[in-house]
């Protein structure tokens, strides 16, 4: 784990990370094979790559979601190397460590807008992470915090009492985004935050990340093929193919001198 004496740990460190899904307790194929990179404070890393390349697996691991039960759930095991978020090693993630991790980490999964509980209002949904940690948290302070993040994601006050089914997909995505931000994280892990959603959400994602970046300790990992968004954010990119990083660095360098045929193909497809 790299840290400078007396300074905060690097927000995201991934060291030779290999990971496998387990089905019915049995290990399956490798979803990640020896992945290494760092996202330092102030940096944004865009993760791109082929379908099945391991992008969502990486995002899930960094968000502490090694096991997700229920329909469509998954069970991932770190089988080699490790990953660290704000200095917390993820390979052995106890519940108390997971609580510390999720306190500082905003996670916007690919299906974030579908994951919202149907029977809760927007106000309740956004405040849930606060009350899940402290049932006696001051109600006015929680409400104020919810209003701040609601405003940050461009939603009007009027949606606070609505239920998810009363909202558009784009609005639900914004609610999920607001909810992920309510605890004031310094790390954002976002999995395709703009895919298939109206174009205005894209602008909001850029604006919110720009705001979050005012915190010098902030770092973000964003899975997206939207090079325009990544350029606006001044992001570096990591290109994933078959569980391995096959291109890493500044956007123009990676696509200008591709080190792997897949990077060349992707660059052409994206018009990089
Ligand atoms: N729940 C799961 N159970 C078992 N294997 C899985 C599961 N989810 C993903 N995998 C496997 O892990 C590998 C990486 O998948 P992952 O979803 O991380 O890729 P991805 O790059 O995010 O793809 P996409 O762009 O399609 O979302 C694939 O081989 C996939 O089949």
TrEMBL record:
Family annotation (CDD domains): ABC_NikE_OppD_transporters
Keyword field: ATP-binding, Nucleotide-binding, Transport
UniProt domain ABC transporter: residue ranges: 12-267
UniProt cross-references to PROSITE patterns, sorted A to Z: ABC_TRANSPORTER_2
Gene3D superfamilies associated with the record: P-loop containing nucleotide triphosphate hydrolases
InterPro entries in UniProt: AAA+_ATPase, ABC_transp_ATP-bind, ABC_transporter-like_ATP-bd, P-loop_NTPase
One Pfam family linked to the record: ABC_tran
Coiled coil: none
Record flagged with keyword Lyase: no
PANTHER family: D,D-DIPEPTIDE TRANSPORT ATP-BINDING PROTEIN DDPF-RELATED (PTHR43776:SF7), TRANSPORT ATP-BINDING PROTEIN (PTHR43776)
The family this protein is said to belong to: Belongs to the ABC transporter superfamily.
Name the UniProt record assigns to this protein: ABC transporter domain-containing protein
